[in-house]
Predict the structure.
Amino acid sequence: MFRRYLRLLKVRLRASSLLAMQYQADFLLDGLISLFWMASALVPLFVVFQSAQRQIEGWSFGESLLVIGWFTLLQGILEGAINPSLQGVVEHIRKGTLDFVLLKPADAQFLVSTENFLPWRAINLVAALIIFGYGFHLIGRGPSLLGVAISLVLLGTSVLLLYSLWILTVCAAFYVVKVDNLTYLFSSIFDAARWPAPVFRGVLAFVFTFVIPLAVMTTFPAEAMLGRLPWTALVWALLGSLLFAFFSRRVWLHSIGRYTSASS
Amino acid sequence: MSVRGTLRALPTLLRVGVSEAVAYRAEMLVWVLGTTMPFISMALWTAVARYEPVGRYDSHDFVRYFLAIFVVRQMTGAYAAWQINYEVRQGTLAMRLLRPISPLWSYAAENLGTFPLRLLLVVPLTLFSVFTLGTRSVPGTAWGWGFFLLALVGGWLITFLANVLIGSLSLYIESSNRLMDLWFAFFMICSGYLYPVELFPPLLRGLLGWLPFRYQVGLPAELMTNAHGFTEALGLLGLQWSWVALLLGLSILSWKRGLKRFAAYGG
């Protein structure tokens, strides 16, 4: 069972890379644009930290760079592995071609989630490593081994959270027909994750911790690398992301149960 | 079509635009929710300025500025580039070309049609800004109001014409959506959307004055919050409207030449 899905994933990854390299001009342009986007994500940070000694809510320039590094990494995963496939679902629902996916002898959620990958976004990983390096250079010490291990666990929970949030967004497409712009909404909200969470206060702080857990996704791993993440936070992140994943799976099953194909 | 005919058709086109906006109000709400970035910036910059002001901005000034940015962004929005790209690829542009009026007018009318609904959001927000932060949230003089409204119109024109220019490039190449993304990336950095242009390092600030992006939302928001004196504002408005004229020429040229190549794929 598990091996079968692994093989399926491999086939689909290969198909996506072939598809991406089919149009060579587009392929290169895509790479250039993703480099440009990453550079542009850093500009606001440099504007904030023009006077080198400035801090925002106790976060120095180097420490904020770690948050941006995590943001870049997660953005790469979001735009390379999660967005493209799930955007296709919206199209499937509107055109009625989701029926063909449902007829295939594999789990529908797995099928729609692995439909399309953008290999170029892997460049975000490289950029994130460079940003981490520069950040730690400025702080003047390296991360602890334990911290890195914890942050890797948190990477898992963050990806799970992002994916679950996307599945929930896609489920909305079953109820509201015209949702092309949901991707746009999603990525514009995700943009808030590039800043350390303590920046947000009041209502925003509540929303970004519990409703759309952006704080958990980028600030927690950065704190873990700095070795100042409390253990309770790690436990909460684990529990929360599992809960989110479980909830989104239930909602998906419920929505797909209600789906009446476009042709009937 | 004659100028008179176009003028007579415009009110109807605008009415159609408004009804379309009302019909797809849920979709529009999602778009508006997607432009809440100024509130994120507001949270960030008030946090930065909590203990000491940045430049001439204290926390209140930042709240005022980013509320103005949100208002201006709502009133200068255009999405014609995506429309044109889509219609060229689907071939449905042919339908528009059959009508006895330039498609550019109908795009403009459709884009403007969302304004009455947006006003429902923008006016209360402006009033809120005035009540909580004082009258400096809106222009304090008659010429200030005049300049602000002029800058708002200019800002919308630059956004719309840039959309038409980039959208019309889809008549030459397969799709110009990526170019629009690139424009948008520059817009984010250079327009004053994420931070007041003043806070940019001095060396680069001069450069921003010569690019069109600042005149899309930055200048109207600055004029709304009384950032400039009379002569300075006049100079900036002059630069803004020069960009309007330049983009008008370029976009109409590119559109007309492109249409000759249009073959209505699949249409």
In short: The mean pLDDT of chain B is 88.
